[in-house]
Design brief:
heterodimer; A: about 130 residues; mainly beta; B: about 110 residues; seven-stranded mixed sheet; about 50% strand
Protein backbone atom coordinates (compact mmCIF):
# COMPACT_ATOMS: atom_id res chain seq x y z
CA UNK A 1 0.00 0.00 0.00
CA UNK A 2 1.46 3.31 -1.10
CA UNK A 3 1.62 6.05 1.51
CA UNK A 4 2.83 9.63 1.44
CA UNK A 5 3.77 11.61 4.54
CA UNK A 6 4.65 15.29 4.69
CA UNK A 7 7.07 16.55 7.31
CA UNK A 8 8.62 19.86 8.23
CA UNK A 9 8.26 22.90 10.47
CA UNK A 10 4.75 24.10 11.15
CA UNK A 11 5.87 27.69 11.67
CA UNK A 12 8.09 29.73 9.39
CA UNK A 13 9.09 33.33 9.90
CA UNK A 14 8.21 35.85 7.22
CA UNK A 15 10.96 36.31 4.62
CA UNK A 16 12.48 32.93 5.47
CA UNK A 17 12.32 29.63 3.59
CA UNK A 18 9.60 27.02 3.96
CA UNK A 19 11.02 23.51 3.67
CA UNK A 20 8.93 20.34 3.52
CA UNK A 21 9.70 16.72 2.74
CA UNK A 22 7.39 14.04 1.41
CA UNK A 23 8.37 10.50 2.35
CA UNK A 24 6.98 7.82 0.07
CA UNK A 25 6.53 4.20 1.07
CA UNK A 26 5.33 1.34 -1.09
CA UNK A 27 6.39 2.89 -4.39
CA UNK A 28 9.51 4.21 -6.08
CA UNK A 29 9.72 7.92 -6.76
CA UNK A 30 11.74 7.05 -9.84
CA UNK A 31 8.39 6.34 -11.47
CA UNK A 32 5.21 8.44 -11.43
CA UNK A 33 4.74 12.17 -11.18
CA UNK A 34 5.04 13.63 -7.69
CA UNK A 35 3.53 16.97 -6.83
CA UNK A 36 2.90 19.63 -4.23
CA UNK A 37 -0.46 21.36 -3.78
CA UNK A 38 -1.47 23.84 -1.10
CA UNK A 39 -4.72 25.07 0.41
CA UNK A 40 -4.97 28.30 2.44
CA UNK A 41 -7.34 28.01 5.41
CA UNK A 42 -10.94 27.99 4.21
CA UNK A 43 -9.96 28.33 0.55
CA UNK A 44 -9.44 26.20 -2.54
CA UNK A 45 -6.55 24.17 -3.93
CA UNK A 46 -3.50 25.65 -5.64
CA UNK A 47 -0.98 23.62 -7.60
CA UNK A 48 2.62 24.47 -6.67
CA UNK A 49 4.68 22.18 -8.88
CA UNK A 50 5.69 18.63 -9.73
CA UNK A 51 8.76 16.49 -10.34
CA UNK A 52 9.18 13.34 -12.40
CA UNK A 53 11.56 10.52 -13.19
CA UNK A 54 14.75 12.30 -14.19
CA UNK A 55 14.30 15.08 -11.67
CA UNK A 56 12.59 17.26 -14.24
CA UNK A 57 10.26 19.83 -12.75
CA UNK A 58 7.36 22.05 -13.66
CA UNK A 59 6.26 24.95 -11.46
CA UNK A 60 3.27 27.22 -11.21
CA UNK A 61 4.36 30.49 -12.85
CA UNK A 62 2.83 32.42 -9.94
CA UNK A 63 5.35 30.80 -7.58
CA UNK A 64 8.16 29.82 -9.94
CA UNK A 65 10.62 32.45 -8.79
CA UNK A 66 10.43 31.18 -5.22
CA UNK A 67 9.95 27.41 -5.57
CA UNK A 68 12.33 24.47 -5.80
CA UNK A 69 11.27 20.81 -5.84
CA UNK A 70 13.96 18.16 -5.55
CA UNK A 71 14.02 14.40 -5.25
CA UNK A 72 16.23 12.10 -3.21
CA UNK A 73 15.92 8.64 -4.71
CA UNK A 74 18.19 7.09 -2.07
CA UNK A 75 15.65 8.04 0.62
CA UNK A 76 12.59 7.75 -1.64
CA UNK A 77 11.64 11.31 -0.76
CA UNK A 78 10.96 14.54 -2.56
CA UNK A 79 11.04 18.01 -1.12
CA UNK A 80 9.63 21.51 -1.46
CA UNK A 81 11.41 24.77 -0.75
CA UNK A 82 9.55 28.05 -0.94
CA UNK A 83 11.61 31.08 -0.14
CA UNK A 84 10.76 34.60 0.99
CA UNK A 85 7.49 33.49 2.56
CA UNK A 86 4.77 35.90 3.64
CA UNK A 87 1.50 35.45 5.48
CA UNK A 88 -0.10 34.67 2.11
CA UNK A 89 1.87 31.40 2.06
CA UNK A 90 0.07 30.13 5.16
CA UNK A 91 -1.67 26.96 4.04
CA UNK A 92 -2.03 23.23 4.37
CA UNK A 93 0.62 21.76 2.08
CA UNK A 94 -0.08 18.41 0.45
CA UNK A 95 2.24 16.10 -1.42
CA UNK A 96 0.60 13.82 -3.95
CA UNK A 97 1.28 11.15 -6.54
CA UNK A 98 0.31 11.44 -10.18
CA UNK A 99 0.10 8.94 -13.03
CA UNK A 100 2.94 6.63 -14.02
CA UNK A 101 5.90 8.39 -15.58
CA UNK A 102 9.32 6.86 -16.19
CA UNK A 103 12.14 7.08 -18.67
CA UNK A 104 10.21 4.64 -20.86
CA UNK A 105 6.89 6.42 -20.96
CA UNK A 106 4.56 8.83 -19.20
CA UNK A 107 0.87 7.96 -19.11
CA UNK A 108 -0.17 11.61 -19.17
CA UNK A 109 1.58 14.82 -20.32
CA UNK A 110 0.81 16.40 -16.93
CA UNK A 111 -0.51 14.83 -13.78
CA UNK A 112 -3.76 14.54 -12.01
CA UNK A 113 -3.24 13.55 -8.38
CA UNK A 114 -4.52 10.10 -7.51
CA UNK A 115 -2.99 9.68 -4.07
CA UNK A 116 -2.45 12.36 -1.42
CA UNK A 117 -0.61 12.74 1.83
CA UNK A 118 -2.58 13.86 4.87
CA UNK A 119 -1.26 17.41 4.55
CA UNK A 120 0.64 19.63 6.94
CA UNK A 121 -0.29 23.13 8.08
CA UNK A 122 2.47 25.69 7.67
CA UNK A 123 1.98 29.12 9.19
CA UNK A 124 4.11 31.99 7.98
CA UNK A 125 4.28 34.61 10.65
CA UNK A 126 6.43 37.48 11.70
CA UNK B 1 -3.79 29.68 -18.05
CA UNK B 2 -7.08 27.78 -18.10
CA UNK B 3 -9.49 29.16 -15.50
CA UNK B 4 -12.01 26.64 -14.16
CA UNK B 5 -15.30 27.98 -12.84
CA UNK B 6 -17.43 25.67 -10.74
CA UNK B 7 -21.10 26.20 -10.12
CA UNK B 8 -23.16 26.32 -8.13
CA UNK B 9 -20.99 27.36 -5.22
CA UNK B 10 -23.24 25.48 -2.82
CA UNK B 11 -25.79 22.75 -3.45
CA UNK B 12 -28.30 21.99 -0.70
CA UNK B 13 -29.75 18.51 -1.06
CA UNK B 14 -31.04 15.56 0.92
CA UNK B 15 -29.83 11.95 1.01
CA UNK B 16 -31.20 9.99 -1.91
CA UNK B 17 -31.33 13.02 -4.20
CA UNK B 18 -29.28 13.61 -7.31
CA UNK B 19 -26.45 16.17 -7.37
CA UNK B 20 -25.28 17.83 -10.56
CA UNK B 21 -22.04 19.81 -10.33
CA UNK B 22 -20.62 21.87 -13.18
CA UNK B 23 -17.10 22.87 -14.14
CA UNK B 24 -16.58 25.29 -17.01
CA UNK B 25 -13.16 25.97 -18.53
CA UNK B 26 -12.09 29.30 -20.01
CA UNK B 27 -10.68 27.39 -23.00
CA UNK B 28 -10.88 23.84 -24.26
CA UNK B 29 -9.27 21.24 -22.02
CA UNK B 30 -6.82 19.18 -24.05
CA UNK B 31 -7.92 15.57 -24.58
CA UNK B 32 -10.50 16.03 -21.82
CA UNK B 33 -7.79 15.87 -19.17
CA UNK B 34 -10.22 16.82 -16.42
CA UNK B 35 -10.28 15.31 -12.93
CA UNK B 36 -12.67 15.54 -9.98
CA UNK B 37 -11.86 15.33 -6.28
CA UNK B 38 -13.91 15.11 -3.10
CA UNK B 39 -12.74 16.79 0.09
CA UNK B 40 -14.22 16.47 3.56
CA UNK B 41 -13.32 18.81 6.44
CA UNK B 42 -9.85 18.16 7.83
CA UNK B 43 -9.05 15.58 5.15
CA UNK B 44 -6.96 15.50 2.00
CA UNK B 45 -8.76 15.49 -1.32
CA UNK B 46 -9.87 12.11 -2.64
CA UNK B 47 -9.42 11.31 -6.32
CA UNK B 48 -12.74 10.46 -7.99
CA UNK B 49 -12.67 10.89 -11.76
CA UNK B 50 -9.99 11.29 -14.46
CA UNK B 51 -10.15 11.81 -18.19
CA UNK B 52 -13.48 13.56 -17.59
CA UNK B 53 -15.41 10.30 -17.25
CA UNK B 54 -13.26 7.45 -15.90
CA UNK B 55 -13.83 6.48 -12.29
CA UNK B 56 -10.77 6.00 -10.12
CA UNK B 57 -10.21 2.68 -8.39
CA UNK B 58 -12.74 2.00 -5.68
CA UNK B 59 -15.07 4.88 -6.52
CA UNK B 60 -18.76 3.87 -6.40
CA UNK B 61 -20.71 3.94 -9.63
CA UNK B 62 -23.09 6.59 -8.29
CA UNK B 63 -20.32 9.05 -9.22
CA UNK B 64 -20.35 9.82 -12.95
CA UNK B 65 -18.24 12.30 -14.85
CA UNK B 66 -19.17 13.62 -18.26
CA UNK B 67 -18.49 16.44 -20.68
CA UNK B 68 -15.84 17.58 -23.10
CA UNK B 69 -14.14 20.69 -24.39
CA UNK B 70 -15.06 23.44 -21.95
CA UNK B 71 -18.07 22.03 -20.10
CA UNK B 72 -17.85 19.18 -17.62
CA UNK B 73 -20.26 17.67 -15.11
CA UNK B 74 -20.00 15.48 -12.05
CA UNK B 75 -23.25 13.72 -11.22
CA UNK B 76 -23.86 11.93 -7.96
CA UNK B 77 -26.99 9.81 -8.08
CA UNK B 78 -28.71 8.80 -4.85
CA UNK B 79 -26.66 10.94 -2.46
CA UNK B 80 -25.35 9.04 0.53
CA UNK B 81 -24.62 10.71 3.90
CA UNK B 82 -20.87 10.33 3.26
CA UNK B 83 -21.12 12.26 -0.04
CA UNK B 84 -21.70 15.62 1.63
CA UNK B 85 -18.40 17.39 0.98
CA UNK B 86 -16.66 19.90 -1.25
CA UNK B 87 -15.89 18.86 -4.82
CA UNK B 88 -13.11 20.28 -6.99
CA UNK B 89 -12.35 19.91 -10.67
CA UNK B 90 -8.79 20.10 -12.02
CA UNK B 91 -7.48 20.32 -15.55
CA UNK B 92 -4.18 18.64 -16.40
CA UNK B 93 -4.16 19.10 -20.12
CA UNK B 94 -1.90 22.12 -20.05
CA UNK B 95 0.41 23.91 -17.69
CA UNK B 96 -0.16 25.55 -15.31
CA UNK B 97 -2.38 22.91 -13.76
CA UNK B 98 -5.47 24.59 -12.35
CA UNK B 99 -8.29 23.76 -9.96
CA UNK B 100 -11.80 25.11 -9.83
CA UNK B 101 -12.98 26.98 -6.78
CA UNK B 102 -15.11 24.09 -5.53
CA UNK B 103 -18.76 23.21 -5.03
CA UNK B 104 -20.01 22.42 -1.55
CA UNK B 105 -22.70 19.77 -1.37
CA UNK B 106 -24.49 20.29 1.91
CA UNK B 107 -27.41 18.80 3.74
Amino acid sequence: QVQLQESGPGLVKSSETLSLTCSVSGDSISSYYWGWIRQPPGKGLEWIGYIYYSGSTNYNPSLKSRVTILQDTSKNQFSLKLNSVTAADTAVYYCARGPYCSSARCDEPHPNFNLWGQGTLVTASS
Amino acid sequence: EIVLTQFPGTLSLSPGERATLSCRASQSVSTNYLAWYQQKPGQAPRFLIYGASSRATGIPDRFTGSGSGTDFTLTITRLQPEDFAVYYCQQYGSSPLTFGGGTKVEL
